[in-house]
Amino acid sequence: MEKTIKVKYHSDKIEKLCYIDGKSDWIDLRSAKEYHLSAGDFALIDLGISVQLPEGYEMITAARSSLFKNYGLIQTNAIGVIDETYCGDDDVIRMPVYAVRDTVVHVNDRVCQFRIIEHQPRICFEEVETLGNAARGGFGSTGRQ
């Protein structure tokens, strides 16, 4: 079932949101401003949009796979979570980044991506003495290949 997201653009210099057909169902977000960052700088990259999500949905943002390679930037919160209450005209979506080298992000550069998901259902927590299952092992326990 198709869902509708209302989008307010704060810049006419960025491309409109769209799917990249055949590539992914994640949608790229672009820098709305130019940033000149030095190694060690922190910035909130303005993504140039505000949105109103469908009721019961949230937006997950994540760095594009090329962000570090192309710009030397790390998204500081690993992923961003935007719920449907962040929907005011001036609730501009931003991406927190840390620069590990000197870099420039230009207007309209694709820096992150998003998808929307339904809210997690309400869950109950049941405290138990044992889960009744054998341990699977820790990090890397399934092998390398």
Q: What would CATH call the homologous superfamily of the domain at 27-118?
A: Deoxyuridine triphosphatase (dUTPase)
Oligomer: single chain
Biggest sheet strand line-up = 2-11-6-8
Query: What is the ordering of alpha helices and beta strands?
Result: EEEEEEHEEEEE
Percent in strands: 35-45%
Q: Show unreliable segments.
A: none
Overall CATH architecture of the domain at 27-118:
Distorted Sandwich
Q: What is the alpha-carbon Rg in Å? A: 19 Å
Q: If helices are DSSP runs of H or I spanning 4 or more residues, what is the number of helices?
A: 1
Number of strands: 11
Q: What is the end-to-end distance?
A: 37 Å
CATH topology of the domain at 27-118: the name is Deoxyuridine 5'-Triphosphate Nucleotidohydrolase, Chain A
> From the helix content, strand content and strand pairing, which structural class follows?
mainly beta
**Approximate shape:** globular
Largest sheet properties: 4 strands, antiparallel
Give the C-level CATH assignment of the domain at 27-118: Mainly Beta
The amount of helix comes to under 10%
Mean pLDDT across residues: 93
